[in-house]
Amino acid sequence: MTRVEVDTPHGPARAELHCAEEARAALLLGHGAGGGIAAPDLVAVTRAVTAAGVDVALVEQPYRVAGRRAPAPAAQLDVAWLAVAEDLGERWFPDLPLIFGGRSSGARVACRTAEAGEASAVLCLAFPLHPPGKPEKLRLAELDAVEVPVLVVQGERDSFGQPEPSHGRDVVLVPGDHSLKSDVDAVSRAVVEWLNRILRLID
């Protein structure tokens, strides 16, 4: 594991790199709004994915590196994420397809930046379809705008809602709530199975 700092227009971000023995792709994973890269689902997915031959970069947004818990505005998150993706793509993963991903808020960032960052696919862990108790405030447009393959892994009791599968978008329900920590093995299995399938298509 290697830690690197990346300069962005909104301050330094940090990436924790976990490299596979013979990588077929690189997965960039962002954290939730108030959490960090030590979230149980992110840790479990990182372990499983590197074992399956995919490099992983766990990305900490500048506001977290600066010690703040309150997230930056969406536009700043997106700009910082794209700066990190460009830097890591050039320095660490120059010949690999990049897959954007994250949990909760990080999943939204991955969706919004997929086109600009030329991501080959998008992984959403616990996508917050709407705020709890406010199903009228849908964020489905962010998911629908992604034109590359998408996997959404969602807790069966997630109070942030349940996205529906659609063309190019798989949705896997696992036991638990928005934290996805009830059955991290089920989360990891879903991600690895999907990655193996889409990487055959990308190759």
Automatic annotation (TrEMBL):
GO molecular function (one): hydrolase activity
Superkingdom, natural source: Bacteria
Keywords, in A-Z order: Hydrolase
Domain KANL3/Tex30 alpha/beta hydrolase-like: 24-168
Protein name (Swiss-Prot/TrEMBL): Alpha/beta hydrolase
Lineage: Bacteria, Bacillati, Actinomycetota, Actinomycetes, Pseudonocardiales
